[in-house]
């Protein structure tokens, strides 16, 4: 077994390219990856929330995974979103991702039966998946989509498992990030999911981020990480402040829809979202155009 | 095309029987149906939330549907839960249910990308599904699991579609039920999903209910419906009050888990729930035992 | 001590009239009361939420109370809102209301320190106030303003106190109303605070309502009560449906502000609200004008 | 008019000492102030949420204010909580505080009529108070008690007023703190109310904090501020982590109740809280004892 690479830095949770007939477009995927490969991103997450994972068939998922493994640069850590609603299906998918060459699995909380997803049920779920997985897993807590928050006492317990490598916490709460860092065992990694509070989360001990914003602005996100790690507080804060409006508009408000629109404007391939998701309206498109223009004007200076 | 039957009365959203190896058990299903067939239930919902639909594979779903169509009495209206997260998959499933002989499709709101499920997106989704469906559809609003509530203005609009027959509203709000009745076109049916407020919902104009409680206590639920429709207010209210604790314990608090436990105690087949769901704890089991004993003592008088 | 009158029927929680200089206007109060006295309202609540109680000084409160006692017809039950944030101040006010001739005190939950208002703290509070009060008290639960809901288990306990006569539950939940009726001792009264679900609440056993809508439409509210009590279900339901839009627009959305505007349009005195509350905007005014025109057109038929 | 002092650093929102008969105890207040005067606290807030302001009569408030002005050291900035529910009463109180010698007024959002407290209403309220106040005011946003959050767009607008000096944001959200810093004019101060995220808030540009925890642990809070400002990130983060459990236990969970208990254990005067608040239970007391013992053990090393 190869040595585990450190889960540090900025990971981009890639969008899934569809063509105009709503089919997976692997050429477009490779085209995007060629550009991402040239950045200092630490790795990629495939089939996460930004990747419209929940809208893909299993056949599409496997096809996508195989293509990413082939096209990604060797220095990028590959993480597959492998969660299904049942324990056994999650295990099957996680094993398949490992077979294909993924280094880590990102496992979202099961969530449909919200009121029954007690800490005990979740602990049991993650233990079983981690026991059965050939690769380390990351817990994935994204309350805005699932209604479920993985809190510090559960993380404290789960961090003891040798095959649970960390958590992606998308709550946006810096206090929670700090608590997770504080309760977890030493080499458990806290990655945050919100670019809006990335700088502050790094200050309180997060190891990095899986940031949808890095799909559109990988260099800025990486720079924010590097400035923060280098202790250049004033510059990091200023960059964080510049990034905030884009993070809110491209990620928090319209998710994959606005992200794909922005990618198209930035020379990546975005393409359509899958229904029931709908293309961005005129007002939102104009708002994003202005935002991107402002960012590029600043970068040009 | 046969004449549409009225969506009135009490429908039972059936549990899905698994054997001890976590496989579908069609013999157990038939055994339960034999008993339900002898009641005055108006029909059955298969692969709803109580049926652990979200935990079934597509192959299991088809197998289950076929078995129900075969085993159900002819006077029961059969409703299949057909929602997937994508529009096209929902349409495929709805067509398959129609092919197999289901009379109505129950279509839960897509929900993972909650913040993007605006009334416009939902309207578009339901229009497309209804346009493509050979059988009438019911909108399914269950905010406690999806985070999404279908509100009256959207229902007003959707009720105009000739192939949208009604809504199952599981919010438990009697005010909402009254509003839905008030805004919808005349032959649009409002079915509620909460036995706890069934009597009041009928009083404000609901046509019936899809009541998980009817899995365990079909006769009591049907009696409550009939007393309410006959204007026997005092008796209906008294029965509603007797039913309330069972509804809260068997349905609201632990969902399919407690329902299956109760079914086992009542001579139906309940059996295990599928992981990550977990068997009921000792305290909850004892509470339900006492509840059922009280109900049976009263019935024996 | 005179015999207690039954807390049944419709109570109007009166607005507090201010003149254009923001002073209490007792003449305007008497003018309104003269009209209300001629209705079949069961009584009045003074200094409730609709009465802008929280915006009045103690001197104004006493002045208002005295004036109401003088001007109200003898057949009306008078209820004073007497809650302050401290236990001792609530007791002082309750005693003063009793001295002035009020028959019942309506005691809102203390609420600023929300997270500390546990059932134990609230039980203790209500016991102390009830022990010290010369007149029976009503618990007042209004979560939309206080963030605190008085739930059934606490009501079960409090209903044992001989000086706690009932509860005003403004949550709008018919299930809660049914539960409160079910758990409380026999002569404990459940009055609801929402005209939008008044009919359904009466069906499940509520004794009546303290309905802000009755300030503007006392006759319709009383008629809804009487039809419901007489078992005229179809007529009651139809009237409930007619009342619903007015209840939402005049009460739920803009509170005292829209109520005072409507009163002015209906020949009562509404007058200004007190700052920081602000007069209704143009759009809202027009919406209410249309609503009232529709109601009057129907009444004229 | 003297030059305005900078609102920077750590402010302690003082508890209000009551004796065993529930009367204000000014000797106890002076005793506490004597100790606080010897710290590097930037100033004091009197009659804030921790000071049980909402439970005090106006006469008590004035008495307390006068005593604090007399007993506080000259280098401490004095801030009075002056909010009432009406605009005119808030103005009266603010003027009185200025007369007595307070340098700044802390003005909580009016909140009882939550749904009507729109940004427009709040803007109007703060403008009127600021226009009428002889001293600069601080906006006070504390959603956990009021249900109302003052968001960035409103702050952007209010920060233009020359007599609105800043905001105390008690939401605990570091993202909001960052946004407030970003949108406000240059010399508008963002003070946070949560010691749990103080370090992160300072990193994103907050000027300081009004921290209840500083009542019990003023030196640690001041040290955290100074380390953060000096760019000693690792030490600041470590101290933040040590402070977190105390902040949650003494402030977030039981408010003034646990704070007064802790003060008694630490040699300050805490004394009883006022009813309906109740003394801390046995379990909570023991938890706090252990917490304080751990802190003192560490400090002794």
Q: What is the mean pLDDT of chain A?
A: 96
> How many β-strand runs of chain A?
8
Spatial strand sequence of the major β-sheet of chain A: 1-2-3-4-5-6-7-8
**Briefly, what CATH class of chain A?**
Alpha Beta
Strand content of chain A: 5-15%
Superfamily (CATH H level) name of chain A: Aldolase class I
Distance between the termini of chain A: 47 Å
Query: Please, what is the oligomeric state?
Result: homotetramer
Q: What would you call the shape of chain A?
A: globular
Number of domains of chain A: 1
Roughly how many Å is the radius of gyration of chain A?
Answer: 18 Å
Describe this structure in words.
Four copies of one chain form a homotetramer. In chain A, 49% of the residues lie in helices and 12% in strands. Chain A contains 13 helices and eight strands. An eight-stranded parallel barrel of chain A has the order 1-2-3-4-5-6-7-8, surrounded by five helices. In chain A, strand 7 (189-192), helix 8 (198-203) and strand 8 (208-210) form a beta-alpha-beta unit. In chain A, helix 1 (26-37) runs parallel beside helix 2 (58-71), helix 3 (87-100) runs parallel beside helix 4 (119-132) and helix 11 (233-253) crosses helix 12 (255-265). Chain A starts with 8 loop residues before the first strand and ends with a helix.
């Amino acid at each position: 077994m190869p040595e585990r690479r450190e889960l540090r830095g900025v990971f981009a949770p890639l969008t899934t390219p569809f063509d105009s007939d709503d089919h997976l477009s692997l050429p477009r995927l490779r085209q995007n990856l060629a550009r991402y490969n040239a950045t200092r991103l630490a790795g990629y997450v495939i089939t996460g929330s930004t990747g419209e994972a929940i809208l893909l068939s299993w056949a599409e998922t496997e096809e996508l995974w195989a293509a990413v493994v082939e096209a990604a640069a060797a220095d990028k850590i590959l993480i597959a979103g492998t969660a299904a609603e049942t324990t056994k299906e999650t295990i099957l998918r996680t094993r398949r991702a490992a077979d294909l060459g993924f280094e880590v699995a990102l496992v979202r909380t099961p969530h449909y039966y919200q009121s029954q997803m007690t800490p005990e049920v979740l602990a049991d779920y993650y233990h079983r998946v981690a026991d059965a997985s050939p690769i380390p897993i990351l817990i994935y807590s994204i309350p805005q989509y699932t209604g479920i928050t993985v809190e510090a006492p559960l993380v404290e317990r789960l961090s003891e498992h040798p095959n649970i490598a960390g958590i992606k916490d998308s709550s946006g709460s810096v206090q929670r990030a700090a608590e997770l860092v504080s309760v977890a065992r030493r080499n458990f990694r806290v990655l945050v999911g919100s670019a809006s509070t990335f700088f502050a989360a790094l200050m309180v001990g997060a190891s990095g981020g899986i940031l949808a914003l890095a799909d559109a602005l990988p260099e800025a996100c990486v720079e924010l990480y590097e400035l923060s790690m280098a202790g250049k507080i004033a510059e990091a804060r200023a960059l964080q402040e510049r990034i905030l409006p884009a993070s809110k508009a491209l990620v928090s408000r319209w998710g994959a829809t606005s992200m794909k629109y922005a990618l198209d404007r930035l020379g990546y391939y975005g393409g359509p979202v899958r229904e029931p998701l709908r293309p961005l309206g005129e007002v939102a498109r104009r708002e994003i155009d202005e935002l991107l223009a402002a960012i590029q004007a600043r970068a040009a200076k």
